[in-house]
Amino acid sequence: MKTNNTLKTISAAMLLACGVVLNANAQDGNVYAYHAGHVVFMDSENNINRVALESNKTVISFYDNDEKVLFTTPANGIDSISFNFTAPVADMLDVQFGEDGSVNDVSPMHNPIQTFATEDGEHYAESVVPVRYSDQYGRYIATYANDWGKGSLGKNGVYSKMDYSSNSDFMAKLADGHTLRAIFCANDEVPDAESKWFSGHEAGGTGLMVCKSGKGMNGGNDITFLPNVSADGSKSNWIWAVSGVRPEPGTFYDVVGVWNKEEGKAYIYVNGELLNTVEAAGELHFPNNEAARWLAIGCDAGPKGGQFGGNWDIVTTKVYDAPLSKYDVQMMYNEAQY
Asked: Using DSSP, how many helices (H) and how many strands (E) does the chain show?
């Protein structure tokens, strides 16, 4: 394929015949095929020779310059083809920190978020989270300076809480497959302990964390995506999607965990790169105790409050209803779309 106009000439009529929209108004060097708001295929425009509507107009195929098939899908598996990447919307939760230390959900769901802090490690009161402006990210980021991997967050513990226990829509969206994303930094050397920065684990749930060495690759304390899934409806299992990456103090990581219910798999990405895929067939198992059905920022969610935290800087936390594709994740990181 030499230019975007070539693609338009070759494929516009046949794609429109099966309901696919061709957008050739802009160009970044790649061609993107979308379905239901997610990129299902992408490649350099110079590597794509043609797009064909085949098998009695039931299949769309992309061919390279050597006439090898790059991608093929049923015709209804592509809604549009574009020369621009559009990042998926974090439609369930999209956290932004305010200059005043407020924690706000700017997703379409606009979930209320509370922050609690303590000075003695026992008595918590509603508060704000410490923030600072980051030139790197062009926004305010929050510091959750908690003790590492303990049932208590420590003397100056702080956590933020997004309660979904009475939100049936939120639970249903988590249960049909979901994606978690967080950009975070460990401010200290991580210990050999389960330490969490965006999590809702209490005998169930889902979340992002650092695992103990016994669960990590090669005995490491890995960045981990951990959903709890029941294959038979009676017993649930932790799905350890470990990455092999141990967070270095002072380094920010863009972490994405995907549970694809339809595929029965869980994926862990770090900085746009897919690092592990594990089997995860079944139904999402929520915490049995409704008091623990919330998502914690800065730690893990427990029935009595925050637990098993760490000393983190956090740029954002997000939840998407749909399992993001590898192309979505790669391009969000490459283009720093958060």
From this structure: 3, 29
